[in-house]
TrEMBL record:
Pfam families membership: DAO (PF01266)
Protein name (Swiss-Prot/TrEMBL): FAD-dependent oxidoreductase
Any single GO CC term annotated in Swiss-Prot or TrEMBL for this entry: cytoplasm
GO-annotated molecular function: oxidoreductase activity
Organism: Paracoccus zhejiangensis
SUPFAM superfamilies, alphabetized: FAD/NAD(P)-binding domain (SSF51905)
Membrane-spanning parts: 7-24
Domain spans labelled FAD dependent oxidoreductase: 6-370
GO biological processes: mitochondrial respiratory chain complex I assembly
PANTHER family, per the entry: FAD-DEPENDENT OXIDOREDUCTASE DOMAIN-CONTAINING PROTEIN 1 (PTHR13847:SF287), SARCOSINE DEHYDROGENASE-RELATED (PTHR13847)
InterPro entries linked to this entry: FAD-dep_OxRdtase, FAD/NAD-bd_sf
UniProtKB keywords: Membrane, Oxidoreductase, Transmembrane, Transmembrane helix
Length: 401
């Protein structure tokens, strides 16, 4: 590790590693990059504990386009991230997302979202109750008014594979990683100039990128800045099913989608098992080290909803559970990306609110464009900048899970 780098990235999970990759892969960048990561096994990283899926079914065009680019990267990942003979396979399962609406307000939201999605070229279908029943005969659909199904470009994949692919390629291209923790940031007026690590090392830098996930507010505070990002716990459950409905779909080779019930409960196949979760009834900020899953969510919320939605889910057995953290943006549940207007060499890549994996490629590319070229060149992420936070001006996304 040097004592000075052009760019220091705080956080080495999927967002930080994506930024590092896009910087090092840009032929116009000839600088040095250091990624500082406190947890070398990524045991508590939102990346590692994610349900690892991608969708284009958002309500605003920027988020749709961000995910479309993410899908392109997932498809091309083996070629993009090849290092020597290693070609990482993300094992993408194109099962799609299936949103159900049981109230007219929910159905109208699906219609509005669908118009945005189709304008962006997303392959999303709106289905009537009868069309839904024909496609997925295991579902009870009497209460469903409308369904929205992602026919292509949506599914789930290897979460750690995405992070490790970016990480390995960035290192191969010359980025340095260090296992340490940023404990202080040097700031003089309108610029940051370096970081102090827990080991005592001091590193000078021309740019700092905050990619520290649920700890983003702590990192920002070291530079005298504030963002509305806090850790929110999400429990994930894995269950076995006595009479699995996987294989019963009448499209997509029998594969079931990731179902989002109107209640907010989601479920998708995971090998021979199923993975499920739900929005918590109460959703307070939690300690950064609190990873105890909320078992009662499975018993009291999830299982009754699943059993009501499909007879196949009446006899299920919980086999595993864990909890991860959303880096939750309390203003509008959308990512914050870009320079701080008062400290322009401090760049945010934070507040993904559960969408960090699918948004990592576009975020990494966008941040690298800011650093190398002085502005966004491919997808304009300006509306997602920190200015809206400082002005208290939400950039709303209706399709938040």
């Amino acid at each position: 590790m040097r004592d000075s780098y052009d760019v220091v990235i705080v956080g080495g999970a999927v967002i930080g590693s994506a930024v590092a990759y896009y910087l090092m892969a840009d032929p116009d960048f000839d600088g040095t990059v250091l990624i500082v990561e406190r947890d070398p096994q990524f045991r508590q990283a939102s990346t590692s504990l994610s349900a690892a899926s991608i969708r284009t079914q958002f309500s605003n065009a920027i988020n749709v386009k961000i995910s479309q680019y993410g899908g392109q990267v997932i498809r091309d990942f083996a070629d993009m991230m090849a290092v020597g003979d290693s070609r990482p396979d993300l094992n993408f399962h194109g099962g799609g997302y299936l949103f159900l609406a049981t109230q007219e307000a929910q159905a109208e939201t699906l219609r509005l979202n669908h118009a945005v999605q189709r304008d962006c070229g997303a392959d999303v279908l709106l289905w009537s109750r009868d069309e839904l029943a024909e496609a997925f005969p295991h579902l009870r659909v009497d209460d469903v008014l409308l369904a929205s199904y992602g026919r292509s470009g949506e599914g789930w994949f290897d979460n750690s594979g995405l992070m490790n692919g970016f990480r390995a390629k960035a290192r191969d291209l010359g980025a340095d990683y260090v296992v340490d923790e940023v404990v202080a940031i040097d700031r003089q007026g309108g610029r940051v100039s370096g970081v102090t690590l827990a080991s005592g090392a001091k590193v000078q830098t021309g740019t700092i990128v905050n990619a520290s996930g649920p700890r983003a507010s702590r990192t920002a505070a070291m530079a005298g800045l504030a963002i509305p990002v806090e850790p929110r716990k999400r429990s994930v459950f894995v269950f076995d099913c006595a009479a699995s409905p996987e294989g019963t779909a009448r499209l997509n080779q029998g594969r079931l989608p990731l179902l989002i019930d109107a209640s907010g409960v989601y479920v998708r196949p995971e090998g021979r098992f199923f993975l499920t979760g739900c929005p918590p009834v109460e959703d307070p900020a939690v300690d950064c080290d609190d990873f105890a899953p909320r078992h009662e969510e499975f018993e009291e919320i999830i299982w009754p909803v699943l059993a009501e939605r499909s007879a196949a889910f009446e006899a299920i057995k919980l086999v595993n559970m864990w909890a991860g953290h959303y880096a939750f943006n309390t203003l509008d549940h959308n990512l914050i990306v870009g320079r701080h207007p008062e400290v322009e060499n401090f760049i945010f890549a934070n507040g993904f609110s559960g969408h960090g994996l699918q948004q990592a490629p576009a975020t990494g590319r966008g941040v690298s464009e800011l650093i190398v070229h002085g502005g966004f060149r491919t997808l304009d992420l300006t509306p997602l900048g920190v200015e809206r936070v400082l002005e208290g001006r939400p950039f709303l996304e209706r399709a938040v899970i």
